[in-house]
Amino acid sequence: MALWWGPRVMFVGGAVLLVVESSRGVPLWELRLALYVFGACSAVFIVRQLWAGHQRGPGGDTPRWLVRAAAFLTAAGVLVLVAHLAGVEGDALPLVGSVLLLLGLGWFVEAWRGAKPGQQRQALLWWGVSLCALTVVTAIAAAFLLPRTKGGLFLSLLIVLGLALFVALPLGLNVLSEWGVRRLRRRSSAAGDGAGVGLVGYLGIAAIVLCVLAVVCLGYLDWVLAAVLLATALVLVLAVVSNTHADVALVLAALCLLAAAPPEHPKSQALLPAGGQRVLVAMGDSYMSGEGASSYFEGTDDGGRNECRRSPSAYAVALATEDRRFDRALFLACSGARTYNVIAKADANLLQVKEGKPGPRIEAQGDEPGTQIDQLTSQASSFRPALVIVALGGNDAGFAILGEACIAPGDCEDQESAFTGNLPKVRKALAATFRSLRKALPADVPIVAVPYPQPLAPVGRCTGVALTKTERDFIHRFVDQVDKTVSDAAAEAKAGVEYLAEMKDSLKDHQLQLCQARKSKAGINFVDIESVNGFAAQRFSPAKWIHNSLHPNERGHKAMRDTFTTWLNNHPVLLQHRTPAPTPHEQATSQALPTPEPECSMTRNAGNPHCQNLIRAWELEQTRVRWPWLVPILLALAVLWVASIAVFSLLPVGEPRPRDPASVA
Fold this sequence. Notes:
By secondary structure, the protein is mostly helical. It is built from 23 helices and 9 strands. Strand 7 (447-449), helix 18 and strand 8 (497-499) form a beta-alpha-beta unit. Helix 17 (423-440) packs across helix 18 (469-493). The radius of gyration is 29 Å and the shape is elongated.
């Protein structure tokens, strides 16, 4: 009895623990502990299934309790998901419903595959082929229709495609795998010694060993993403063929990890500027806020509400808490910030693109109480700023779109003109923002413009980074151009803005650039998958999973802090009483020479197409023309699947157990 029920109860108990911990938003170590417990419970259950073979009653029939339990779990999962879609409150409802549905379908497949040999032989083949064919037809139709639809129909097509890929296809492969395993076993029995079938099985083992060696080689060469994808494909194929709950366990763990948002920290007292006499003010975008870290301050990583992602490991926070030259900090930097999210609303006219044409609308980000300069102004009477540091301009220049374009198929250098053509506008917007900031501060408070550190080392060969040398050179060149734009804007503003040129080489000087160090040791993330806090619709959105990519991590921010501290030590006069900087009213009013109109714009309300739309159309075209590569990939997966079937056909078949409690009606 214990051998029968124990492993199954352990599996369900481990799943409940993991779902509860994932829904609670626990610290990372606690979530990992729950994952390890679930993994151990799953391993016991899977080994028990492999050892016992199919779960059958005394007569070889499928246990009736298993079918009833599967029906109950499936119905419960559907009801929970429908309740969520109907508006019932509960942030954990989508996760709970998905897990219940997953367990129900897994038990249905177990009952189906555990039917007595000889029963439903043709049904297995028919259902397997039908479900796989349905998936193929749905995928082809979605590929044709999705680019041509919008709104509710687009969402409906995505849901249908998701059901086909994540429900119909796994079910079809499961039943086809069972049909293949049974067929090989029958041939082995008919042949007597089964030498021919055994040879096929050993060839399958050889194919799987080759895949494992390929994963190891890719990992050694630092092609971590490729190694993870290949390892995932191998494990999933083996799990589907194995006639165990391994596939259910893998998908359930993935769901819980995606649903689990990064841990949040309460706001430090050092970040409450009121009463401070030497306050460091940190403004700008994600390179200042600390995006790229493993955790954030409470309320700043809520998908759809506040996505500023202010991290305790950001170098501005470390300066405020560890550098005695500052007693507190006003931490206003916010991921995704553009100049129109920073400049004061009263200075909207400074962002005017052309005479008579309005500039971009000045607005706060998410649920922030105002633009960053307006927030600074509203609190200015409660503290004394000692220094203001600003990292801004990357989002105006299209950094986020650049990363997406270069990771996508095709050579992103082809779109260079779309990015560089906007830099003159970025310079003007930055200069206007610096002027607005100077107006909001006492005249003797220094402002430092911080450039972006170079993420990639200029080397000929770079393992582990899925970018061609042409693309790496383009990114390196473009970051240089953006940094020069920041420097030119600081000079053009004539507002006494200092430029911290040394920050450009902060990662290089600490040997932390990509291509300079292994990705696991680099100071900047390449592709980093991590979900967000907030509503389930946000946490499960793939668009929210890669926000940490191409951003400095904790190592990177430590290097940036060291660079900033060294620079500040070399400029001691900066924090002493100094001659007031010129105010905007004292500046010359000469206008820069007109610049040519770019082919597209990185900002809204600019009167010409948005670059993001043009670049995404280019990405789709690059993906479409490379579809023939799917053929060898699918063939390789098919070979791996057949090899796995051959391997599992060598395992013994479990015998019916007379005292099987499942036989009790």
